[in-house]
Amino acid sequence: MTMLKPKIIERLNNQVTSETYASQLYLQMSLWCEDRGMHGAAAFFRAHVPEEIKHRDKLIDYLVESGASVEIQAVPAPSNDFSTLVEVLQAAYQHEQKVTHQIHSLAEAAMEEKDFSTFNMLQWFIAEQREEIVLFRGIVEHIELTGFTGENGTAMVQMNRYLHRLVLGSSHPELD
Ligand code: FEO
Questions:
Q1: What is the pLDDT of residues 61-89, one digit of tens each?
Q2: What is the CA radius of gyration of the chain?
Q3: Ligand 1 within 6 A of 52 CB?
Q4: How remote is the CA of residue 54 from the centroid of ligand 1, in Å?
Q5: Which of 27, 30, 92, 164 has its CA 20 to 30 A from that of 20?
């Protein structure tokens, strides 16, 4: 017997699919980069895959703890149709903006339903999405600052170094 309302269970199940999609998207982006020898960028995206799996599992654990059913849904194939690394990085930022909107909309639904438990659980995701936006917006701003257009050469090598330093946890990868 669950205390959660069907509408909330459905929304949380959809978010499980959305987080799974994000993990697949970043895996695909990583492999797109590997195919082109962009190993720093590939490492950055690959390192982000378990982050998304963590988000997925947190939602699943909450549903299970709440006595609600989880139904694993089909996940659409992620896009692989990119022409430059700039396009890939911008698409990743746009995706994080979309997920942030989904989380905020979920929190709004939980509030409307007076589902304080789900609302409380979602606070973690709200904070997490804020971090995700800081991370991905920082990359897009770095692209703008450096005028990187995705061409091969010194700028590409530097961009790969920058992205690899992000994997290593540098908070100012442009200065290291
Ligand atoms: Fe699950 Fe990158 O947000």
A1: 999 999 999 999 999 999 999 999 999 99
A2: 18
A3: yes
A4: 9
A5: 164
From the list 105, 96, 159, 164, the residue with the least C-alpha distance to 131 is 96
Q: From ligand 1's centre to the CA of 27, what distance in Å?
A: 13
Structure token digits, residue 174:
């442009």
* Helix (H) / strand (E) containing 105: helix 85-112
The answer to whether the CB of 115 is under 6 A from ligand 1 is no
3-state SS assignment for residue 48? helix
- Taking the CA of residue 48 as reference, the ligand 1 atom at the shortest distance is 2
- For residue 52, the ligand 1 atom closest to its alpha carbon is 1
Q: What is the pLDDT of residues 19-60, one digit of tens each?
A: 999 999 999 999 999 999 999 999 999 999 999 999 999 999
Task: Confirm or reject CATH 3.30.110.170 for domain 6-71+78-168, answering yes or no.
Answer: no
At 32, list the tokens.
């797109």
Task: Calculate how far, in angstroms, residue 60's C-alpha sits from the geometric centre of ligand 1.
Answer: 15
Kindly give, in sequence order, each residue whose CB lies less than 8 Å from that of residue 33, ignoring residues fewer than 6 positions away. 39, 41, 42, 45, 85, 88
Can you say how many angstroms the Cα of residue 8 is from the centroid of all Cα atoms in its chain? Answer: 22
